[in-house]
Amino acid sequence: MTQQYAGSLIEQVESWSQAACSQLSYTPALLERRPIPPVLFSRRIENTLLRLDADVQDVRQLCQDAIVHKMRAVCCMPRDVAECRRFLTGSDVLVVAVINFPLSGSCAKLCALESQNAVADGADELDYVVDLRALRSGKLELVREGVRNVVDSGAVPVKAILETGILTPEAMAHGAMAAEAGGAAFVKTSTGFGPRGAESLDIEVLRLAVQNRMGIKASGGIRTREIADRLVLAGADLIGSSSGPNILS
After folding, report:
1. Whole-angstrom Cα distance, residue 86 to residue 194?
2. How many domains does the chain have?
3. Residue 217 known to be catalytic
4. Residue 6's pLDDT is what?
5. Per DSSP, what are the bridge partners of residue 239?
6. Do the beta carbons of residue 160 and residue 188 sit within 8 Å?
7. Per-residue pLDDT tens digits for 54-63
């Protein structure tokens, strides 16, 4: 955050967050705390495979790389959860499944079913794309309801993907507050399929909005340690990347 506008940004995000909470009739719990940042940098990395052309061997390599490099998790499509769980048995690497991905086009019933199936197959966490149409239209109650639906259906920690590349900073703050009100454990920047990935300003806005109450996962376009370090410095707890081994090499 550049010093020349740091104070202005803080005031703006505080105003946006208060407006969102007012619309949601929600008061953040002051005593809640976000996850403690990991000691090892590798434990911030969620090794990601969401390519259209990925096959089973790619899924297994994803898991092997996560084990070798001592990463926090693998992030995969719902259909690959069971294979990841089989491969990772005996390790401490988590399995994260994406939900309503990447276009935020499913109805609540399908999101619930997808969440339930992913958890039944062995997912430890769910990365859910929020109702982006509702968020961009300012319908924060619908965003919260969508997050709550997935939280209740999966009964595991949920990261709410906001797709920050299509949002104004104000909408980012609003989305973060709606996700918190819906019970998400983290907010996440991007799917990797949007117009851009994570940027430092996105992380700064999200951190100012949620303070220490939630975790933040930066994702999208993170291919080097330099970029990852910059995003962590801005306030990210976790890094989602398909270049995990490169970042850690």
Report:
1. 31
2. 1
3. yes
4. 62
5. 45, 218
6. yes
7. 999 999 999 9
CA distance 241 to 32: 28
CATH label of the domain that carries residue 169:
3.20.20.70
- Average pLDDT of the chain is 95
From the CB of residue 49, how many other CB atoms can be counted at a distance below 10 Å? 19
Active-site residue 159, yes or no?
Answer: no
Q: Which of 65, 80, 121, 127 is catalytic?
A: 127
- With vertex at residue 153, the alpha carbon angle to CA 209 and CA 121, rounded to the nearest 5 degrees, is 110
pLDDT grade, residue 118 (50/70/90)? very high
Which of 69, 186, 76, 187 shows the shortest CA–CA distance to 122? 76
pTM: 0.95
Where do runs of H (alpha helix) occur along the chain?
3-24, 56-68, 81-88, 108-121, 132-136, 140-154, 169-181, 200-210, 225-234, 244-248
Quickly count: other Cβ atoms within 10 Å of residue 103's Cβ. Answer: 12
Which of these is catalytic: 124, 131, 159, 188?
188
pLDDT surpasses 60 at 3 = no
* Cβ-contact 173, 205 below 8 angstroms: yes
127: annotated active-site residue: yes
More confidently predicted of 2 and 171: 171
Predicted confidence band at 238 (pLDDT cuts at 50, 70, 90)? very high
Selected catalytic residue, list 124, 202, 217, 237: 217
Residue 130, domain extent: 3-248
- Radius of gyration, CA atoms only, the chain: 17
